[in-house]
Amino acid sequence: MTKRLDLDKFPDSVYARELRDRRKHLRMAPELEAEYLDEHLRRVQPRVRTWTGIAALLGTGFTIAQVVTHATLNAIVLGHLLVILPTSITLAWLAWSKGRMRTYLRIAEPLAALLGAAVAFAVANSVASGNAEELASLTLLLIATFFFMGLQFRAAVIAGASILLSYAIAALMSDVTTPLLLKSVGLLGFAFALGATIGYEVEHSYRRRFLSHELMIELADRDGLTGLRNRRAFDEHLSRVWQQSMRSHARLAVLLIDIDYFKRYNDHYGHQAGDQALQQVSAVIAGFARRPLDIAARYGGEEFAIVAFDLADDAVTDIAKRLCEAVESLQIEHAGSACSPHVTISIGVGLAQPMINRSPAGLLQLADETLYDAKTAGRNGFVVHGQDSYEILETGAFNASDS
Length: 403
Known about the structure:
Mean pLDDT: 89
Strand content: 5-15%
Number of strands: 5
Number of domains: 2
Order of helices and strands: HHHHHHHHEHHEEHEHEH
Strand order of the largest sheet: 2-3-1-4-5
Structural class: alpha+beta
Largest sheet: 5 strands, mixed
Oligomer: single chain
Helix content: 55-70%
């Protein structure tokens, strides 16, 4: 899907930006990384639960066997009792406990490396005692580290390297013969390299698939002509960010933007030229809403809207000023305009602190009334109304139309 899309046409999409700029990276912007981890955990949960359950049973069985076999608290038995048994049971408990998968991922990263090192130590001692076949269990653990434990690639590499290095050190300390040491380390090294290579490609593929899927969903919320979000997506986003603003006590600004004398433009130049002008203006508007909680949308016809999250009054004023200048600097000829020889815009800005007893509709109405004021003042400019105007606003009674 993404190969057929010009990702540069969606500068306000964080998903398109990641697909375009990150390429082979296995890390996204923080807000997207959190989204991806949630999706990742849902996807891997069945295999993680299966593997950790099996590993806990095996860890318990091997620990009991070691205690019975040795009957003394030697290094092998202590390793099973203090590391292998508790870590394998902890991982299984986290994976199977309801609502603890996110906790699992944080704790599994260090525990996987610790568990791998302990198992490698035990296997090396068994190999030194003539049980070379136990290398198979270590190879299986390496594979599981990359594909069954639900670890991210970097954590899997660290855990895998811990297994390989711990085995090599323990094998040297246990007087494993040189030919067997070289063969076993070579085998484990090959398994590690294979797991890392495939694991990298798998995670990279999943990450791109996640971004492509989210972009596809996002495209359904976009206006077909301009590429900006449509009215429905704007309303839903405003409702969400309104709640976020109340939680974080942040200010919220709504900019309603109208192309001046656009009906005259269509009448004079034709609707095809009008569509081209809408696309050019919308491309400029999109560049002013690139932060994660901001949004630019086609509000209807020749009207556009921007939601800006947590900006000071002077910053919002600066955006409105630069936006007016940027559109006029396109120098799109407009013979029918009464305020400029080129296409211009008028902007009404409503800026307020969301309150629990008010709704987003009030802030939208404030911006709408302010847009009316900007048009009344001669167009090709902007007007800002802030908290004072918002607090006395009577939602549902459009005051500007009566003035």
